[in-house]
Amino acid sequence: MTVSHLPLWVLAAGGTFCVLLTVLYAFLLVKTFEVRQKQGAFVFYLLFFFLNLTMLQGIGDTCNCVYFNPALEDGWFACLPAAAVAAALAVLTAVGILSAVKLYGSLSTELTPASLMEGLDMLPDGICYSTASGVPLLVNSKMQSICIEAFGTAVLDTDLLEKRFNSGEVAAGCAVTGINDSRFLHLGDGSVWNIVRNDLMIKRMQVREIIAYEVTEEYEKSRRLEQRTQHLAEVNRQLHEYSSNLDEIIREREILSAKIHLHDDVGRSLLALRAYIAQQNISREQLVALWKFTVAVLRREAVSDNHGDRMEALREAAKAVDVSLNFDGEIPAEPELNRVIALAVRECLTNTVKHADGSELTVKTREKDGAYTVEITNDGRQPDGAITERGGLRNLRRAVEMNGGEMETEFEPRFLLRLKLREKYE
């Protein structure tokens, strides 16, 4: 049986099937060209494409001659055996399906321009390649979205966009900043992008590469680090200034402290003198003792800061007011501790003469692992109650605490001043 003997509906079904096969082979031709397969595969699919078109034309001519225009002479296709045409259609169908499956497998495993572009669009960074004159060659979706938000336009001319970026001409809500040699683009959503340009040479063609990296977190950390660096530089400057003036500050503080004590001692003596002249309740012996103590202090005002001289000055001052000064234990040689202890002994000596009417002052010193405990007592009258720190005692506490020590006072069974001090450098 030839093709001309087939029913019309069979010929129509065959024609429809040929149309579908034509579409399939056209798809195979296009994809083969896109993925740049071997030239032989393209020729193979082109041959089968035209063979399928020939069969489609033959089926159409047969339908026209047999059923629509019987007067026309049957063509060559109408004389072909129906079984042979069916077999040819089966071969075309099998080849088309197998070729489509193979092509699909190659598209999922081989790198193609389409798969490359799809992969670039999935990247979180913006990528743009253009010619040296600024004509875009490849731009992923992230770079397009960045440029649209920052400049209000897609990437059409990289030269123009680069000029606007360097001059800071960006849309409202965006900004361009720089740290050292880097330039950053700030978008309205708070993200920060580092824009980097590289000039490449690819197959003797100069290509411009522009990449936008998101560095929001790194930029914020860098900004905070720069602020801290500036703050530390200011602190270092202040410390340097303080260190350069420290010696003079200490010297002036000691001079001021000495002047305060000298003022207090002379003031007490003048008050006592006025009371004596006014014939108030003060004896001549008390007045003489106060003035002897004051004169002793004045004589030792210019004495060196050497710790031995301090203690010797205190011994002479105590002797001048008929007070026996006894030391139990070794006084530390560390200058600051020695100075603080000397201040404490002098204050207690003054109070022994002024308030306790004592004749003996004992300074007991104990040391353990660089820590010193100093206890100062006298044999005078017991205080009436808890010690109220005023004047000299208040200033003494400040001096002790400035050197990292502690100060305690007790009033029974007798007056006791206790200092807890530690050497600054062990």
Secondary-structure-based class equals alpha+beta
Strand order of the largest sheet: 2-1-6-5-4-3
Straight-line distance between termini = 119 Å
- State the share of residues found in helices, binned by percent: 55-70%
Run of helices and strands: HHHHEEHHEEEEHHHEHEEHEE
Question: Strand portion, in percent?
Answer: 15-25%
| Mean pLDDT over all positions | 79
Morphology: rod-shaped
Biggest sheet architecture: 6 strands, antiparallel
Number of helical segments with 4 or more residues: 11
Q: Uncertain segments of ≥5 residues (pLDDT<50)?
A: 301-305
How do the strands and helices of this protein lay out in sequence?
Layout lengths: L7 H27 L4 H30 L13 H28 L3 H9 L4 E6 L4 E4 L1 H11 L6 H10 L7 E5 L2 E5 L5 E11 L2 E10 L1 H62 L6 H16 L7 H14 L3 E5 L6 H22 L3 E9 L2 E8 L13 H11 L3 E5 L5 E7 L4
Parallel strand pairs: 7-8
Antiparallel strand pairs: 1-2, 1-6, 3-4, 4-5, 5-6, 8-9, 9-11, 10-11
